[in-house]
Amino acid sequence: MMELQRKGVLAGLLLLLYPLILPSLFGAPSHASPSTFSEWNIPKPRHLRLLRSALQGQGETSNEKQSDLCVPLADQGWRPCVESGNATSLLDKDEGYLQVFLDGGLNQQRMGICDAVAVAKILNATLVIPHFEVNPVWRDSSSFMDIFDVDHFINVLKDDISIVKELPDEFSWSTREYYSTAIRATRIKTAPVHASANWYLENVLPVVRSYGIAAISPFSHRLTFDNLPMDIQRLRCKVNFQALAFVPHIRELGDALIHRLRYPSGRTGLPDSNYLKETTDLIDNRGPRKFVVLHLRFDKDMAAHSACDFGGGKAEKLALAKYRQVIWQGRVLNSRFTDEELRSQGRCPLTPEEIGLLLAALGFDNSTRLYLASHKVYGGEARISTLRKLFPLMEDKKSLGSSEERALIKGKTSLLAAVDYYVGLHSDIFISASPGNMHNAMVGHRTYKNLKTVRPNMALLGQLFLNKTISWSEFQKAVVEGHEDRQGQIRIRKPKQSIYTYPAPDCMCNA
């Protein structure tokens, strides 16, 4: 009995001390850094057999196979056709002003901007440069003008719609703060997801005519992809692929990183702050190198939202479960399925180890130049180490650019993502570790430009990784066969699918 009491006292003491020993489990969740658990409990490789085979076979990858992977896509017979016709010319007098308030990350905001232009055209209204809400996950307060070249945006669309940077003085009261304090007659907060053009004409146009202005919030995904006039669809394409250009300092930094990836021998340590103002004449004798951009979408929020097991043990499961409950209050429906069920359905994001094995199976080896486009990876360097073993020539913004060059984007998630987007758009191959807004936006943009983009077959990979006895040759054969038609081939958009992910046939014409 005394022994049981002693154990009970010890257990109680441990419970009291637990929050002090492991504060990350009991404290407020941090969006900026990986969980303490993932750093204390360094996850071991989950697919050790495959990893060993991949590492042993790296030198066996032929140069011919390596070069074949980076061969540009053949002409598929489709051409961009986003130029608006006479149907989109401006009317003599518009109805009033349209404001939209956009949330989400960079790529969700990007889609919202395109839709806002389309809705303004439908209403014959003047669009106010969209307002970006502070992202509750990334806590980034970057504005439209911080990310996108606003003068370019207005100039490209000047013949399609009227756009203003700010409201005139008589509407200066129409601010985000004004709408957050009470119910306002000029705010539209009932716009359904994928609303039709008629919905806006029936519900928003009367408000614009009555008050001279209407503000729509929330607005993300508030315009249908189907049953719209072709000139409206083409206008959305024009915004996405022509009008939305990043601010000059983003493009300049992106060009510098791309140059260093293509001409690595020209790097003699980190460049000085004048690098971006100069043209580098150092050219490798072998010509520009090929490089692959990997969007490693494996941040803490992604890991928690997926409800999958990532090999961090019981402590990691507890940390993610608490984080999931605090952030999404039980709205993660995946949590009702087992890890095996989620993986076999392709609903688990690929870990750095798994995406590395995919790349190795496709034929990339340790001579591949890999650019890592990612927010802070859940688990930090410990989680990335396996990927780095497979691809030692892996770079990112920090390794390629000096602190002076990165000063304007430091700590600003949207600007960091914009640099990655720019580099990804100019890479020889782009691949994302799991579907998401960045993946969808890049697939659409690179399809529009006929560039090679690998779309991981998530269901196939989930099933292969569940097979703990599969040999490397079997794994490689299945991966290659399962991705033959997933490298950027044109896929015609189906009803309800996004025009921004599948630009044919709305944004592209079959020549």
TrEMBL record:
GO molecular function: glycosyltransferase activity
Pfam families: O-FucT
CDD domains on file: O-FucT_plant
Membrane topology, record value: Single-pass membrane protein
Location in or out of the cell: Membrane
A GO cellular component entry from the record: membrane
Single biological process term from Gene Ontology: fucose metabolic process
Database matches in InterPro entries: FucosylTrfase_pln, GDP-Fuc_O-FucTrfase, GT106_glycosyltransferase
Signal peptide annotation: 1-27
Entry keyword set: Carbohydrate metabolism, Fucose metabolism, Glycoprotein, Glycosyltransferase, Membrane, Signal, Transferase, Transmembrane, Transmembrane helix
Primary localization: membrane
Family: Belongs to the glycosyltransferase GT106 family.
Name of this protein: O-fucosyltransferase family protein
